[in-house]
Amino acid sequence: MNLKRMAWGAGIAAAIVCAVSGTALARNPHCSGGILYVTQGMRDKDKGDAESYMRQMNKAVLELEQCVTEDPTEYESFGYLGWAYAELDSAAKAGKAFDTAIKGLTEKGDKKKVDWASGNRNSYWARAFNAGIQAIRDAQNAYPDFTKKPEDEAEITLKNEAEKHYKQALASLTAATQLKPSDPQTIRNLGSCYAFMGDFHRAEAVFDDGLKAVPGDTTLMHARASVQINLARSLVDDKKYDEAIAFFSDLIKAEPSNSDHFVSLADAYFRRAQTKEKDARAADFKLAGDNYARGAELKPGDADLAFNAALAYQNADLWDKAEAQWRVAAKTRPDDPEVLGALGSVLAEEKKYDDAIRTLQ
């Protein structure tokens, strides 16, 4: 996932907010009063008077809520209401108010006020988004692979620190999505944050909701596919082999040229084979070998895949197939004693003793 930070940040966006605050007052007294409370509150904030600032903003919300209830076409006041909500960290309400303002002002053709409302919303979105991205970076710096089990007390401490940062990232990115619900970049990073924590179900749900808001967005589609693959791999780790096998089999039908899908399916068969006995065990090892071999065909030069295929076939007592894959691996690793030793052993099982001796010399 691309965690690229936006080129512009909260400082620039805040300047936009201040530059447009001198807007003409609305006719409805609740509207004009609410707008006045917002502008006065921002002045108090600039002066460092936190108590007066909070009092003014709360009054602004009360007045502006009454205003837009009485006059739902007062779109400029919706913009100020969004501003007040955002200052009070009510991101969901702010996002809805800003959206109503922008749509209504657009319909009226008031470009200047559209730019003002959009700029205000973007400033709060940027703060939340950038805070979320920074928190993800801090988490990954503390404990890069969050799904890895800590090995000692030091790693437990680092993982706990990473979890704290990830929770901050989730809070910030959730607020950012509430401010701009149809922004693919924000949705992608929110889902990715869950994925980094190993919560693939939540990540998938975020991407599903995102694709409802932004149908057909390719970045979200790719992110969803990646999460689904990780989810299926977690099924293997949880020993839910049948579910994982069914999932990867469907993926192969959809993308028959993707080597990774064959390898993942092979891994599931290999792991399941280790839980079985006799013929059932051999059958799963054969299927593992078949899929590793297909993965190797699609990714020529990757000796590990041929190695795995040969090992699977060997476990199934399919010596001829094992020989073929060991020879593929040997072409890439001609001096690897492990590969040559395994090939020699297989040749001996096939009673090709002269070939075995030459291979092992």
UniProtKB/TrEMBL annotation:
The keyword Signal applies. Keywords: Signal, TPR repeat. It holds the Pfam family TPR_16. The keyword Signal applies. GO terms for biological process: cell division. InterPro entries: TPR-like_helical_dom_sf (IPR011990), TPR_rpt (IPR019734). TPR repeats lie at residues 184-217, 225-258. Coiled coil: none annotated. Residues 1-26 form the signal peptide. This is Tetratricopeptide repeat protein.
